[in-house]
C-alpha cells in the first residue's frame, strides 16, 4: 500500500508538513488498515502522520482535545497500574466521545493517559498489560519471518497469539511465531508482512521449518550451514511450484528459496565471460 514511487506530498489539505515525512502511503481500493473505511481516500497520498491518524481514529482532522498541551501539573498517567506514570513523551486527555481505534473510551472520560497506556488501549481495548508481553528468553529472540532483513537485531520481539485482533487484522496465520519490532509493526499497520514495493516469496513461515539439519540437494555447497532448514511436504504449493518430486526431502534456506523462485535446485549457469572470484584469504591486503 505504501512505497517510494508515489508523489512525496500529502494530499490532505490540512496537513501541517505535507512534504516532510519519513514515509508516504498511496491509498489503494482494497485498503482496510485499522478496520477503517478508506473508500473516500482511494488514490490519495498521505504522509505517515496523517495515515496513522486515520488508522487510529478514522478521520484526518486533528482534534483540539487530543492535541491541546496539558499543564505540567496534569502530565501524569491516571491509570493506577501504570509503571511510569510521569515518564512519557506525551500525555493524552481522554474525551469520552473519542472513537480512536474503534474503542469505547466513555469509561475513561476525563482521564489522562501516558503514550504507552494510550497505545495499549487503542491496540487491545484494555489498559491492562498482558502477561504475554514479558520479554522473551534469549533463544527465542529471533524473527521467524523468513524475509526479515535483520531477524536477530531488534529492540523488541513479539510472540504472536492467533486470537490477537490488533488493528482489526487477522493474526491467526502467525500463531506461535516471533516477530521483530519492524515486521510486527508492518503487519500491525498494513495486515501483511510483505515489504511495500517488494514481493514476498512465502507470506508466512512454514510450520516445517527447523533451525538445524542437512540439505538433501547433492549440489548444495554448504549443506549443513543455513539459517534454517525446510522439510518439504507432499502438499507443498509454495510460490505455485510443483514440489511433489521433493516431498520428504530437507532443503537449506538457499536451495528452498531457489526452487521456489526458479523451479530448480541447481544454480543457473554463469553468463559468458563470467569468472568466479577466488576465495579471499583471512589476512589483510598489502
Automatic annotation (TrEMBL):
Q: Which domain of life is it from?
A: Eukaryota
Query: Which parts of the sequence are annotated with region: Disordered?
Result: 266-286
Name of the featured protein? Uncharacterized protein
Which organism encodes this protein? Answer: Hemiselmis andersenii
Amino acid at each position: 500500500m505504501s512505497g517510494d514511487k508515489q508523489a512525496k506530498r500529502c494530499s490532505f489539505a490540512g496537513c501541517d508538513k505535507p512534504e516532510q515525512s519519513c514515509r508516504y502511503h498511496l491509498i489503494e481500493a482494497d485498503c482496510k488498515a485499522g478496520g477503517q473505511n478508506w473508500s473516500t481516500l482511494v488514490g490519495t497520498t498521505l504522509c505517515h502522520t496523517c495515515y496513522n491518524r486515520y488508522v487510529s481514529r478514522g478521520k484526518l482532522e486533528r482534534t483540539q482535545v487530543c492535541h491541546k498541551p496539558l499543564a505540567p501539573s496534569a502530565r501524569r498517567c491516571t491509570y493506577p497500574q501504570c509503571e511510569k506514570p510521569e515518564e512519557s513523551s506525551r500525555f493524552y486527555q481522554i474525551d469520552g466521545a473519542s472513537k480512536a481505534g474503534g474503542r469505547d473510551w466513555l469509561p475513561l472520560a476525563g482521564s489522562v493517559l501516558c503514550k504507552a497506556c494510550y497505545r495499549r488501549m487503542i491496540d487491545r481495548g484494555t489498559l491492562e498489560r498482558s502477561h504475554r508481553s514479558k520479554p522473551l528468553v534469549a533463544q527465542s529472540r529471533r524473527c521467524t519471518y523468513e524475509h526479515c532483513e535483520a531477524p536477530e537485531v531488534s529492540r523488541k520481539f513479539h510472540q504472536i497469539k492467533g486470537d490477537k485482533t490488533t488493528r482489526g487484522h487477522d493474526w491467526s496465520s502467525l500463531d506461535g511465531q516471533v516477530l521483530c519490532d519492524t515486521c510486527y509493526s508492518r503487519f500491525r499497520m498494513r495486515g501483511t508482512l510483505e515489504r511495500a514495493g517488494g514481493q514476498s516469496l512465502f507470506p508466512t513461515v512454514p510450520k516445517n521449518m527447523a533451525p538445524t539439519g542437512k540439505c538433501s540437494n547433492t549440489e548444495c555447497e554448504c549443506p549443513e550451514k543455513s539459517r534454517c532448514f525446510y522439510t518439504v511436504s507432499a502438499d507443498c504449493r509454495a510460490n505455485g511450484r510443483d514440489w511433489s518430486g521433493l516431498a520428504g526431502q530437507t532443503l537449506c534456506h538457499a536451495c528452498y528459496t531457489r526452487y521456489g523462485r526458479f523451479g530448480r535446485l541447481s544454480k543457473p549457469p554463469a553468463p559468458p565471460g563470467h569468472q568466479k572470484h577466488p576465495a579471499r584469504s583471512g589476512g589483510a591486503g598489502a
